[in-house]
Structures are given as structure tokens and as C-alpha cells.
Amino acid sequence: MSLPYEAEEPEKQRKSKEPEEPWRPADSGSSPPAPDEDLPLRRGRVHIAARQRGVDATALGHLALHLPHLVGSLGVVFVLSYLVDVLSGLPWWLPFGCWVLSGILVFHRPSERLLARLLLRLRYPSPEEAKKLEPVWREVAGRAGVDATAYQLWIENSDEINALAAAGHIVGVTSHSMSALTPAQLGGVLAHELAHHTRGHAWTSLLAFWYALPARQAWRLLLRLASRVEHLSAGATTLTVVVTVAVVIALATATYGLILLPLATPYLVAAVSRRSELRADEHAARLGFAAQLLAVLRKENDREETARAAAAAAGVPIAEEGAILRLLDSHPDVHTRMHHLQEYLEHRR
């Protein structure tokens, strides 16, 4: 595999070698890009590993915030497994254990392909798309010290500039990004998504969602059943409210307020997710793609401003996002991301 700079070598061999010119992406049979589309070059050496997979503070925080949901899901699955044991004679620990171990499928390649196709609606790159995408991906992976073949590239049919990282090995990019971005800008987007893998954001998010699913479904079912209950009398309603409040206060006191954590979890998870996006931007910047990623964000900001101006000219009312919705947003606004990247560039100067 071609690399942007050399892998680690013994000290004696390094001393005997003359400095080499910076590496450029392989031609792959295509004509070289225009000068303004060249990928930014860097000198140095990295250690090449299969994935350079790790877990940062935001990934751990994401898992920690979902612990109450995990405990609830364990209870739900245990009850269902016990009912299966009673009704069919199948040992309860068999379905329960299968569910506990099901998270391994996050890193199972065939299962990932099903996830990519059926749930994420992704497809394989066309030959023309692969011709543009693969050399850029090799450059990005090489700079990060990652084996490029450890991940699988996918395409999402969308008219937006966007990309995604999911499960253990999925890296997707929209078809519009493929056509609208230069190779260098595409490299910045891919470097951002690679960070979600190497920092543990992608697989921890999917595991948290999967293991919280039984508890969430059970809660939704309870709400549906409660909505179908006949209206109570005034006295019964008052008694129900008083008892409910008393139970909540007692549980909150006994658990030092932890029982109320699920109410704040959506806001905390969104805050952690926004921080992980900024961490991924920082990762792309450190790989040399700060200016290119900043150009992509400016392009997205210009698109939003153009859409707003067109709506205003047509007399279409524009709904402003409220404070609550902003707190629940999993991504920072474009201006915040541009501000952080601009600060990084100025600091580097």
C-alpha cells in the first residue's frame, strides 16, 4: 500500500536514508488533478496499524450516559427471556445471553454490509466514484497511520454535502459530495469520518443505541397502554398524581438524584455528540486538512444562506430553531465549527 510518508523503521536504517520527497496519491489510471485540487502534502513518519482504534473521553461519556438505559434493557430482556422459558421450556439464559453478545455484530463484516444496505441505505461506489474516492482515502488513512483496507467505503444517494461513519468499518459519503468537492476537500471530509472510527465514536454510538433499544421500546409501549386507559375521576387523578410524585421524590432521594438522570440524558448525549464532532474536526486538521474542511463548511454555509435568501424572496416564513432544539442538536452549528478550524489555522501560523 502506498503511504504518504514512511512507516517506522529501525534507527540505523533511517540514518542511512536521504530525505525523500513528499508522497502524492497514486495515479490509479486517472489524469492528475488540477493544482488547486492537489491534496495538501506533509513530511514525517507514522506507525502503520490495522485501525489505530481507540476510545476518547466523548466516546466513554456517550456509553456512561446510556448506562441507565442499559440497566432497563437488561431488565426487559430478562423478563422476556423468563417468559419464553416458562412458555416454551427454552432456557432463559439462552435468549438473554444471545442478546448480551449481539453487540459483537457491530464488528462483523457481513452484518455491517446488511446494516449499510438495509438501514443506512448505502451502496457500493461506481467505478468512476471509486476512481476518485480510493486514492483520496488511501492518502487520508496513510496520514492517520491506518490500513486503508481495514474500512469499507460506501456511497449515499443524496444531494447534500455529507458523510458518515458507522459500526466498526463503515465509511460513507454522499454522491453530491463526490461530484461537488475537490479531492483535497473530500480528503478533509473523510479525515473527519475516520476520526469517528479511530476515537471510538462510531461503534460506541451504535452499541449505545442497540442496547438501549429494548428499554426505549418498553417505555413507548407503556405510554401507549396508558393513553388507552379510561379517564379517571377527579379524586382518582389527584391520588395518582400525589402517589407518583411521592414515589419519584423517594427514589430521587434514595439514589441521590440518579433516578432523574434519564430525563437529562438526551441533552447530555447531544452535548457529548457535539463535542465529538469538534474532536473529529481537530483530527482532520492535525492530518493537514484544516483549510480544506473549512472550505467545505463555508460552502455548506453559503448553501444555507442562499436557501434562506430564496425563501425570504418568495415570502416563505423561516422557522427559527428554538433553544431546546439547539440543545438537542447532535452537531455544532456551522459557524462554531468554522471558528474552531480558523483558530487552529491561526495557531499553526
Q: Care to describe what's here?
A:
The two termini are 32 Å apart. Strand 3 and strand 4 (170-174) form a beta hairpin. The protein is 62% helix and 5% strand. It has a 4-stranded mixed beta sheet, sandwiched between helices. With 349 residues, the chain is mainly α.
Short description:
Helix content is 62%, strand content 5%. The protein is mainly alpha-helical and 349 residues long. Helix 2 (57-65) packs across helix 11, helix 3 (67-88) packs antiparallel against helix 4 (93-101) and helix 8 runs antiparallel to helix 11 (261-313).
Placed side by side, the strands forming the largest sheet appear as 1-2-4-3
Helical residue percent? Answer: 55-70%
The major sheet is characterized as: 4 strands, mixed
Count of separate DSSP helical elements: 13
Q: pLDDT below 50 for ≥5 consecutive residues: which ranges?
A: 1-36, 44-48
How many beta-strand segments? 4
Shape: globular
**Backbone structural class:** mainly alpha
**Overall radius of gyration:** 25 Å
Q: How far is the N terminus from the C terminus?
A: 32 Å
Order of helices and strands: HHHHHEHEEEHHHHHHH
Would you tell me the overall average pLDDT? 80
How big a fraction of the residues is strand? under 5%
